[in-house]
Amino acid sequence: MTVAAPRLPRLVIKAKGWAAGWNRLGTQAQFYAKTVASTGDALLNYRTELLRLIAQMGLGTGALAVVGGTVVIVAFLTVTTGALAAVIGYNQFADIGVEALTGFASAYFNVRLAAPLTAGIALAATIGAGATAQLGAMRINEEIDALEVMGIRSIPYLASTRLVAGVIVVVPLYCVAVLAAFVSARLCTTVVYGQSSGVYDHYFNTFLSPTSLIWSFLLAVSMAIVIMLVHTYYGYTATGGPAGVGEAVGRAVRTSLVSAGVLTVFVSLAAYGQSGNFNLSG
Amino acid sequence: MNLLTTASRPTIALGGFFALAWEVLLLIPRRPFAWREFFVQAWFVARVSLLPTLMLAMPYTVLVVFTFNILLVEFGAADFCGTTAAFATVTQVGPIVTVLVVAGAGATAMCADLGARTIREELDALRVMGLNPVHALVVPRVLAATLAAVLLSSWVITVGLVGGFFFSVFVQHVTPGAYVAGMTVLTGVPDLLVALVKAALFGLAAGLIACYKGISVKGGPAGVGNAVNETVVYTFMALFAINIIATAVGVKITL
């Protein structure tokens, strides 16, 4: 009366693992498609929830609101990267006697490299991880099931509204981010290192290209879409009690950082091309 | 009154954090050291971070190399792209990617684990049994995060340099020999040491913040979720603040 052992047990377990991973990719893609497809539904039917989320994402909740909310956090992170561009740029340029070009470093690297990457990191940490934590707690407390029972479509109500709110919030946030990077680079160079502000402004204005700025904005918006999709998915499907919510947040942050990084590379390659869309003559 | 409590909350949290940091520092030399917990945690952080660091280091380096190469090609100095790749990877991308992943993967899991234990009152149970949870759980976690961050940063730097090599040579058609020869022009042993010190500081800060947020969780699953969210935000903020200071100091030392 023994249960027949399956043939090749290890291989079967391995194959089941692969199949589960493959299925998870499928469910994820399905969730993303549903979320994107129901944005119209969210915009039509859940406008109050949408407004509430926009207010919440812009200013943050709980302990984060005390620090000053998402705006302050994003600004703080980009202030440090702007200062970094100034510290490295000024010292490296001073090494070969062209420290006048620090303004160029700020206009070039902040727009193309530092501000988008830092803004992506900041978005994932603040509005992204916040969304995962909220949705995960709702899932664990069976509030999402309760919504379904009440006849509210949970994906448009919870995920699509967050996606739309994220895209709307990112525009002013990214403005703050880029401005903070520019201002901190300028202050660091002119006040701390004592360069004359006329020299700085001249090279900064010469090399600041509006096209690159627009591309950088589009990059930020596309990053916000990817980040909100990843984070709502992991929150929506959280399992395993209080610790499960935390783990879901961790997994979501990891995944969204990687996808935002890969996205930045591809968008940059597509936007600037092999030639780089850069003219030394200004 | 209400305004006063709201205003004093961040100060209290900051004080609590420094109290925990001080306690951890005092308890590090106390015997018996929780070796088992230390190795389990270090292995755990390394295991969950290895693949994400690889996935994150490559796009970041490729992006840096791509952006710098546009400039260098314009100047007619594309052969120096090894120099910029090595400099950017060792001084910035290496430590930052390491801590992004250690904070995103390791610290969040640590905070979730400790937070779940806190709301299930397991830490109080430890105290009742006469064990100090800071000594038994926090000290090994903080040290494990520090060690893992240092080890991971060398892995990130290696991956970044190799990724930059492949991107420069096969996509941007730079001579392989020129890339390799250019690597050591600006970047030397002092830069590498500064990078490793930075990674250790980041790991330490990430571990301390995660443990502080974990053991001060309140209010059920939503509380754990929020604590993990705050861990990510505060770690990233600490990371960028430490990075700017460490970079300014490093520039002074190495130049």
Topology:
The complex is a heterodimer of chains A (282) and B (255).
Chain A: H1 9-37, H2 39-45, H3 47-59, H4 62-67, H5 69-95, H6 102-140, H7 143-149, H8 154-192, H9 197-207, H10 210-236, H11 241-272
Chain B: H1 2-27, H2 35-75, H3 81-119, H4 122-128, H5 133-171, H6 176-182, H7 189-215, H8 220-254
Can you offer a commentary on this structure?
- The complex is a heterodimer of chains A (282) and B (255).
- Chain A is mainly alpha-helical.
- The mean pLDDT of chain A is 85.
- Chain A starts with 8 loop residues before the first helix and ends in a 10-residue tail after the last helix.
- In chain A, helix 6 packs antiparallel against helix 8.
- Chain A is built from eleven helices and no strands.
- Helix content of chain A is 84%, strand content 0%.
- The relative contact order of chain A is 0.14.
- Chain B contains eight helices and no strands.
- Chain B has helices at residues 2-27, 35-75, 81-119, 122-128, 133-171, 176-182, 189-215, 220-254.
- Chain B is elongated, with a radius of gyration of 21 Å.
Gist of the model:
Chain A has 282 residues and is mainly α.
Count of extended strands of chain A: 0
| Alpha-carbon distance between the two ends of chain A | 84 Å
* Largest β-sheet summary of chain B: none
Compute the gyration radius of chain A: what is it?
23 Å
Mean pLDDT of chain B: 85
Instruction: Report the principal-axis shape of chain B.
Output: elongated
Keywords:
heterodimer, A: about 280 residues, mainly alpha, about 0% strand, elongated, B: about 260 residues, 8 helices
